[in-house]
Amino acid sequence: MSTASIRLTGIERREQLLNVAVDLFSRKGFKGTTTREIAAAAGVTEAIIFRHFETKEHLYKAIIDQRMGSSDAAAWIAGFQAAMDRDDDEAVIRQLITAIIKSQKNDPKFERLMIYAALEGNEIALLYMRQTTECIVDAFRKYFKRRQKKGEIRAFSADFALAAIVGMAKEYALCKYVHAFPENNLSDQDALDSFTRIAMDGLCLRAKTKKR
């Protein structure tokens, strides 16, 4: 029995419409998706969509807002900040790489939606991207400079170091979970361990050796 044939509460219907819209936006982009297509996929009329969302733009923004308010994102940011507060360089790197891989593994449709948004120049989604990354980038810069003053981090640009770390994780996760390359049979744990080790030993962090 399809969800369209079951009487849903207002909250349930709204959630259904959001899920259907994410799927279509991720495959056709914002411009290429119509509310008529969303309604047909959800098994409802366009009037039902507009009962919950004033316009297609409001529906799209609701998807973005839903992701911004995610409890997973809040928990990750708290863990990231806690690692910085205790000057745990390896934990900072691992938290960052873990979040990137996990986000694309758990929600590849939203990642594809964001790729379409960048190609279309969709300001709603691009604003979300700037807002979510700005605080993380700023926190990393401050942490990086503080650790450099303590002599724990090599004299690299914080922006280049962050780009290198994020780039490794992003490329791996995009190939595996968004593009679904069949030859990518690496495990997430191996990727996490390897990328962390590369960052710690070569890219940005001075290797620590045990005293004998």
Describe the structure.
Helix 9 packs antiparallel against helix 10. The chain is mostly helical. It folds into two domains: 64 residues, Arc Repressor Mutant, subunit A, CATH 1.10.10.60; 133 residues, Tetracycline Repressor, domain 2 (Orthogonal Bundle), CATH 1.10.357. The longest helix has 27 residues. The mean pLDDT is 87. The termini are far apart. It is 74% helix and 0% strand.
Summarize the structure.
The protein is mostly helical. It is built from ten helices and no strands.
Q: What is the end-to-end distance?
A: 68 Å
Integer count of domains: 2
Strand content: under 5%
Largest sheet: none
Radius of gyration: 21 Å
Helix content: over 70%
Number of strands: 0
Look at the helices and sheets and give the structural class: mainly alpha
Q: Which CATH first-tier class of the largest domain would you pick?
A: Mainly Alpha
Average of pLDDT: 87
Low-confidence stretches: none
| SSE ordering | HHHHHHHHHH
What is the 3D form?
Answer: elongated
Give the helix tally.
10
CATH topology of the largest domain, what is it called?
A: Tetracycline Repressor, domain 2
- CATH-defined architecture of the largest domain: Orthogonal Bundle
